[in-house]
Specification:
Helix 1 runs parallel beside helix 7 and helix 5 packs antiparallel against helix 6. The chain is an all-alpha fold and about 450 residues long. The chain is globular. The protein starts with 16 loop residues before the first helix and ends with a helix. The protein has two domains: about 210 residues, Growth Hormone, Chain: A, CATH 1.20.1250.20; about 200 residues, MFS general substrate transporter like domains (Growth Hormone, Chain: A, Up-down Bundle), CATH 1.20.1250.20. The longest helix is centred in the N-terminal third of the chain and has 33 residues.
């Protein structure tokens, strides 16, 4: 293995294109698996949600966690996309950002492990600041990640590529992560709060380090005759231009933003289970297992649909499933006074099955759809503009926290279901971009 990771040094390709592709596929799948495992140990909608709630966080702060995760990954992309467009090699940016993220997460581990010596009013802001910095720095390197994937993985193999990452990562999360999370957070755990969470974050830290190394070893071909770099000011000016001039792109952005609104309630399903349905703490591990296992198995189907039928159909199918998540929460409510906490906890767990079936496939489809929709020479700009706009939409769960505090769970679930339904209607009007990409090729 090549360990000479000078930040600006490209990795030479292998003897043949096929061998280089296989090597990149292996490294990319390893990168995805490691980060999926790391995310499972520190899941924003299950593990960290309960952590900050135990610290006394308000509902809007709980909603902020997944927003920081998704929004932090998406929002900064506009700032880096213009500069990245003019670079011959994109991978050095990913490496530089990876080193920064590695040490930010280490600082978070130290904060959580020493939480007993810190007052809550210091601990909670420090944790949120670290989490925000980790995700926002990751967002600044995510365009580089997507561009390297687009340059090295052919369009008809990207579904297989992301599907393998999600499948293997999901199965390992189900088999290894979920039981350990459930045990450490249960009443029989040998570690008390917050050291149980500190251990989970430390394991994530180790996995993140190896994940960064694996993708940093990609063999990236140079971009021939790259266009001139674009300043941040010019990038912001391109937002209204792209939305006005490219009708397909405008339809896509609108449909995805409305669909994101359907995820208003995502961070609050576990709180509803714990605080209203009174399900036992160990069910956090069960819900995590259900979600990652269903997500892993669904990728066997989603990757085939994406590769063979196109990502437009994948967006529509997963959009239909997203509607069922808040709908199931509404259906469970009448049974709250009939079933006991144990039976009700398992009944409610169908929500995490539906989330697992829909969200991973939807995210993969969205990522690859833009790669195919955008002209190759403008792909970093399209990706940066799109993901920055999507980053704004990821803060909808903060609004969900406000709605929850003001009106309760029932209106929140209804609004989520209605928004997801409208998002599905808009998604059905999207074109299939693969035909145009193949014509350009």
């Amino acid at each position: 293995m090549q360990w000479k990771l000078a930040l600006h040094r490209p990795i030479a390709p292998r003897a043949s294109n096929e061998e280089t592709l296989r090597r990149n596929m292996r490294l990319g799948v390893a990168n995805g698996v490691l980060f999926i495992l790391a995310d499972a140990f520190s899941d924003a909608n299950l593990v960290l949600t309960v952590f900050v709630r135990e610290l006394g966080a308000a509902p809007w702060v709980v909603g902020l966690l997944p927003s920081l995760k998704s929004g932090g990954w998406l929002l900064p992309q506009l700032l880096s996309a213009g500069r990245l467009q003019g670079m011959t090699y994109k991978l050095p940016v990913y490496r530089q950002v990876g080193i920064v993220r590695f040490f930010i997460w280490l600082a978070m581990v130290l904060v959580v492990w020493n939480a007993t010596s810190l007052p809550v009013w210091v601990l909670l802001p420090l944790f949120l600041l670290g989490y925000a910095l980790y995700n926002f720095t990751g967002g600044s390197g995510s365009v580089a990640f997507q561009e390297v994937v687009a340059k090295t993985i052919p369009a008809r193999q990207r579904g297989k590529f992301f599907g393998a990452r999600n499948l293997i990562g999901g199965l390992l999360s189900f088999a290894l992560v979920s039981p350990l999370v459930g045990w450490l957070l249960s009443r029989s755990s040998p570690l008390l709060f917050p050291h149980n969470y500190g251990v989970l974050l430390f394991i994530s830290f180790v996995l993140i380090g190896f994940g960064i190394i694996s993708f940093s070893l990609f063999a990236e071909p140079p971009t021939t005759n790259p266009p001139a770099a674009i300043s941040t000011k010019q990038m912001f000016a391109k937002i209204p231009v792209l939305l006005k001039s490219d009708r397909n792109f405008r339809q896509y952005v609108l449909s995805r933003m409305v669909t994101r609104l359907g995820g208003l309630a995502d961070p609050f399903y576990i709180l509803y289970a714990r605080e209203v349905l009174n399900v036992p703490p160990r069910m956090i591990g069960v819900y995590l297992a259900v979600r990652v296992f269903s997500a892993a198995l669904s990728n066997l189907f989603w990757s085939r649909v994406g590769d063979q039928r196109g990502n437009r159909l994948l967006i529509v199918l997963t959009g239909a499933l997203i509607i069922t998540v808040p709908t199931w929460a509404l259906l469970v409510m009448p049974f709250a006074s009939i079933l006991g906490p144990e039976a009700l906890g398992w009944f409610f767990g169908v929500i995490f099955l539906l989330i697992g079936l829909s969200v991973d496939g939807s995210n993969t489809a969205s990522l690859t759809y833009v790669m195919e929709l955008a002209p190759a020479e403008q792909r970093p700009v399209y990706v940066g503009v799109c993901n920055t706009l999507m980053g704004i939409a990821t803060f909808f769960p903060v609004l969900g926290g406000v709605l929850l505090a003001q009106f309760g769970y029932l209106p929140l679930f209804w609004i989520s279901a209605a928004s997801a339904f409208i998002g599905l209607l808009l998604s059905r009007r999207l074109p299939e971009p693969r035909i145009h990409e193949e014509r350009r090729a």
